[in-house]
Amino acid sequence: MAHGSIVLVFLLLLSILGAPGLGDPGPLEDVVIDRYYIPKICLREVQMGDFIRYHYNGTFKDGKKFDSSYDRGATVAGVVGVGRLITGMDRGLQGMCVNERRHLIVPPHLGYGSIGVAGLIPPDATLYFDVVMLDIWNKEDKVQVTTLGRPGHCNRTVQSSDFVRYHYNGTLLDGTPFDSSYSKGSTYDTYVGTGWLIKGMDQGLLGMCAGEKRSIIIPPFLAYGEKGYGTVIPPQASLVFSVLLVDFHNPKDSISLEHLEVPASCRRRAVTGDFVRYHYNGSLMDGSLFDSSYSRNQTYNTYIGKGFIIPGMDQGLQGVCVGERRRVVVPPHLAYGENGAGDKIPGSAVLIFDVHVIDFHNPEDPVEIETLYRPEGCNATSRHRDFVRYHYNCSLLDGTRLFSSHDYEKPQEVTLGTNKVIEGLNRGLLDMCTGERRVLIIPPHLGHGESGARGVPGSAVLRFEVELISMEEGVPEGYLFIWHGDPPASLYEQMDLNKDGEIPAEEFSTFIKGQVAEGKGRLMPSSDPDKVIADMFRNQDRNQDGKVTPEELKLKSDEDQDKIHEEL
């Protein structure tokens, strides 16, 4: 019985379609529908009262065309099931999906009947339609939003009056593309909820996160309606937008701060007028990197609060600690505005700076001294012109090790106040006891300045750990030797040990060493006393003939009066 039924149906279909060699079974009772293409995905089917757009070719049984929407270059739009179409079409379009294709055979009583259409469709004509469905919507429809991807971290969403930057692909409901921001190479930038967009897009963008992807389907009455748009969007067309929200902000926004890491020992915070050295990565809200100090292997150095950097960063660096890591989100009106900067920062872009503060200082800063250990009963401290021996470790404030006296066999030696070390270290070594340990924080204007030095970055704040090993009392500036009391009354005669009327270098040296040994005077402290004595002799040997005469020998006090020379 089943086999017989299949044959019967097959024969009936052939007779309906006019297969040759078979008899005419008589008039059709209803529309014959052949769904010869059904899309794999059908989100919606045509129902009574729906508004539709479709293309069709209309022919008679012999294949002669009587009408075609393709020939007119415009789709047909109308409402199904309310009597605006011939009954056969009303029935034949029911249940269609977008992009579905159907062959419809409409008998005369469901078409134009016994009257026909003068000059076009004869009376009692059976009509053959080849239909493709392009669009379906209903006046009760709302914007349909489907989230395709959403970032894990989303602490803010689009609200009305926000300014958004997004990429999109725009298609009709049948997939026909009509526009794309990607093809233009730039985002679409506009305000939301203020009438700059079609109503459906205004609604569809609300609640989005930066980086979110959405599909937004907009019915015609919330898009371009009966007029359509140019040649690309027909009248009464539903629109499908695939949207990627790149970034957004509000004109009333201030900067946003996220404290990623704040050192526990933060004793000072940066204020206006401070000079800050920091590393940063600068990115857009979609994660695109536009700049990085790390790529240049050099910190960015600037004053804050004085207009040398964009206003958002001027604000965002206020209150930072040395070593702090901070994220600063800067809206475009506090960054590069509508014009952007170069080819990497688009107009109206929100900028994200991930900042690591290396150090900061103020041009008025003194040396900061922290005493770690000071021996009890200390009553002798280092003074200007003293000769000191000390150990030190030098680093940047981020802990980067620079130099250490422990890398050498002996401690560092210097006469304080002789410009042999940076001024900040010189100041930090004053008033120390032997055995005392200190930490010195030295600003660059008392260190190596804007230019830096070998291994020391420009404008770097330095941290010294110092320990005073020993000290020797110095001599006043300009002196190489001083007497503890009055000098001998007949100085030249006493220096001239062999009484030959002249004093060679060896005789000069023997006399001075004797004075030191007897406690009558002292040399300028040095690790090389012989060199100091040699300098003294050279100063007294005015004509450089290898011997000092009575006329050449002068005390420092006498030279100061004559303003001739300044050494003994």
UniProtKB/TrEMBL annotation:
Coiled coil: none
Signal peptide segment: 1-23
Classification via CDD domains: EFh
EC number: 5.2.1.8
Function as written in the Swiss-Prot or TrEMBL entry: PPIases accelerate the folding of proteins during protein synthesis.
UniProt keywords, alphabetically: Calcium, Endoplasmic reticulum, Glycoprotein, Isomerase, Metal-binding, Repeat, Rotamase, Signal
Domain EF-hand, chain residue ranges per copy: 491-518, 528-563
Protein name in the entry: peptidylprolyl isomerase
PPIase FKBP-type domain mapped to chain residues: 49-137, 161-249, 273-361, 385-472
Chief location category: endoplasmic reticulum
GO CC terms, sorted: endoplasmic reticulum
Keyword check for Repeat: yes
Organism ancestry: Eukaryota, Metazoa, Chordata, Craniata, Vertebrata
Superkingdom per UniProt: Eukaryota
Subcellular location: Endoplasmic reticulum
Region (Disordered) residue spans: 537-568
Record PROSITE patterns: EF_HAND_1, EF_HAND_2, FKBP_PPIASE
UniProt entry tagged with the keyword Endoplasmic reticulum: yes
